[in-house]
Design brief:
Layout: E1 2-5, H1 10-14, H2 16-21, E2 29-34, E3 39-47, E4 50-57, E5 61-64, E6 69-72
Length: 82
Amino acid sequence: MNEVLSPSTQTLNLGEKFTDYQKIDSLEEYILISQEIQEVECHHLTGPDTWETEVYGSGDRIVLKSLNLEFAIGELSLGLDP
C-alpha cells in the first residue's frame, strides 16, 4: 500500500489511516511518498503487530522488502529539489 503525502493529508496518513491499514492481514509494507521533498517513509511488518520504519532521503536507495525491489529515490522524485 502506498500513499502520496501532501501537507493536508500527512497527519491522517501517518495516524488513523495507517492504524486502519494495519488491520489488513496481507499488508506487509506501507509506503508514504512526499510531494514536497525527496523523502519516502517505509513501514515494514516485521512480526505480529510489529512494524519497522525506514526513512529514505535524497541520494538514498529505497528497499521494498515485500516486492524484493530496490531503486534510487530519484526515480520517484523527478523534478523535485533534493
